[in-house]
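Entry 14. Structure prediction run on the chain below.
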Amino acid sequence: MHTIEVSLDAHERAHAAKQLVRDIYPNGEPSLWDMMGTLYSAAADEMLTGGVSFFGIGLYDIENQGGVSHCSLTMAVFESGEADQETVAQGILVTLQSDPLREVAWIDLPCGPAVSVISFRKLLVDSQYTKSGQDEELVMGQIQVHIPFPTGPYTAVFTLDTASMEQWDEFSSAMAGIVGSVDFPHGEMTY
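Output returned:
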C-alpha cells in the first residue's frame, strides 16, 4: 500500500503525491508523472477538507494473469454527536438503508457494532484514456464501514474503492481484516 500523509501542508502534500506517482509508475514518462501527480495531489487536498486522515493506494500483481489490480483506501473520523456506540450504529444503519442502490448491513466487530455499505457504479472513461480509442464503461465497487467509537462521540469511516472487479473477493477479505483489527485501547483508535 502506497500512502500519502494527508496532514502535510499543501506544498509537501503535492510533492508527496508526485513522489507517489513515480513510485507507482517507475517506468513512466514525465508527462504521466505530472498528470497523475496533479490528480493525486488534488484528490489528497479534497480528502483533507473532507476529514480524511489516511489515504493509500494498493497495487498488486495478479498471479498467473500478468496484470495489476488496484484499490484505494481511506480512513476518516467524524464527530457523531452521540457517545453510545449502539445508538450511533443504529442511526447510520437507518440513514443508509434509505438508498436502494446500496447494500447496507449491521456487523458485529470485536471493537463493537458497525455498519457496512457496499455499492457499485458505472463510469464512462473518455476515449483518450482507453486502449481501444473508444469511450468505455468502467465498473467501480466500494466498501465502506462505519465504526462508532466506544469512548466518545466519533465515528471512523473506512472506505475501499476499486475498479479491479475480478479481485473483489480478495479486496473484501482484506477490508474485513482491516476493520476486524480496529481497537480502542485507552480511548484511542488503532488498526
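The first strand starts at residue 2 and ends at 4.
Filed with the rest of this week's runs.
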